């Protein structure tokens, strides 16, 4: 693929979109939006960790859904990860995602201390 998992500019880390593929198997974590969202967020967590960050450093996410009817189910999983701090978020329905994924999530993180307004 011709993209980076993340690019750091100054203290800002831009994370590429992640779908629910298990990096060990190359297969989706499951057919449902919750399994795919959970794996997508886990994948993002690994990229954050590699950059010396965590979910607490995330300030913005974009969530792309194949079907907006999956919003509540995706949001349940999202809320398991972002418990204390809730980053700014946009969620949109799209016509299609790679490998016919149900959900893709991208993020922006700020390294160092974060202050929520």
From TrEMBL:
**Top-rank taxon:** Eukaryota
Which InterPro entries does the record cross-reference, listed alphabetically? RidA, RidA_CS, RutC-like_sf, YjgF/YER057c/UK114
Cellular component, GO annotation: cytosol; mitochondrion
Q: Which CDD domains match?
A: YjgF_YER057c_UK114_family (cd00448)
**What GO molecular-function term can you cite, just one?**
deaminase activity
Q: Which PANTHER family match?
A: 2-IMINOBUTANOATE/2-IMINOPROPANOATE DEAMINASE RIDA, 2-IMINOBUTANOATE_2-IMINOPROPANOATE DEAMINASE
Q: Which family does it belong to?
A: Belongs to the RutC family.
Q: Name it.
A: Uncharacterized protein
Instruction: State the organism named in the record.
Output: Adineta steineri
């Amino acid at each position: 693929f011709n993209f980076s998992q993340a690019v750091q500019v100054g203290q800002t880390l831009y994370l590429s979109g992640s779908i629910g593929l298990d990096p060990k198997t190359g297969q989706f974590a499951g057919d449902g939006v919750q399994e795919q969202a959970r794996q997508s967020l886990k994948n993002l967590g690994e990229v954050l960790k590699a950059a010396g960050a965590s979910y607490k450093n995330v300030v913005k996410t974009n969530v792309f859904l194949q079907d907006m009817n999956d919003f509540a189910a995706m949001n349940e999983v999202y809320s398991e990860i972002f418990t204390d701090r809730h980053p700014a978020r946009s969620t949109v329905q799209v016509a299609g995602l790679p490998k016919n994924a149900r959900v893709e999530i991208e993020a922006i993180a700020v390294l160092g201390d974060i202050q929520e307004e």
